[in-house]
Amino acid sequence: MLTGANILEFQTKGYTILINGLSEAELKHLHDEADTLTNYLISEGYDIINDFGCIVEPWSCGFLDGSSDYNMDRDKYSKIRNSISWNNSCDTVQASDIVLSKYGSTWASLLLQQQVYLLNEQFIIKPPFSLLSSPFAWHKDSDYYQDERHRQERTVACWTALDTVDENNGTIEIKDFLGNQETICVPAGSIVFMSDQLLHTSTGNASSKFRRAYMTQFSSSPLLYQDGQCVALAIKCD
């Protein structure tokens, strides 16, 4: 559970870390989803690095049918999103509950101090022996928006280690609001909450195994283009 100390750290440093924030069942569910999507893309002949830049978005990778207006409708989003693991009869966890309730209405709303909307979600998959080909450049999440209005919108990213991460297998490095730099080494199931204004990077994977992470992003209001279309998702979390 996030504490008052976590909230203060997020406000003053731009990030905070919750060790072992997911239950074993939740961690396994997201880990299995990462493998399902990765295996699907590989079976279709895609290269995770060259074709996707290590970023596998459930809604745009071709696995899900997102033809309906799922991006603003909670019920439609949940039905389609949960279908990634539809064939696992032993799984009592639903992805939509983890994303919208735990990440969204519990954690993100606490850090942003208001109602939040799911903005984006993605798995970050770094293949083995990809030290030189899988790092990300230093950036702030707000840098990716073309519209200045969107850059002014405060958002929070919830970066979750689905495998234990360290300097060897590809983790994130942070330069906080106070000028300090930290390399994040945490066990699987831990979450790093980051402000859209936080400068950070992601290192390459030199290990012999895949390294999986999952990231959700939340905004305090829907991010829309001038024509009213969503930038990505705009699912209200409550």
Automatic annotation (TrEMBL):
InterPro entries, per this entry? Phytyl_CoA_dOase-like
**What are the required cofactors?**
Fe cation
Which Gene3D superfamilies does the UniProt entry name for this protein?
q2cbj1_9rhob like domain (2.60.120.620)
Q: Which SUPFAM superfamilies match?
A: Clavaminate synthase-like
The family line of this record is: Belongs to the PhyH family.
> What's the protein called, per UniProt?
Phytanoyl-CoA dioxygenase
Look up and give the organism this protein is from. Mucor saturninus
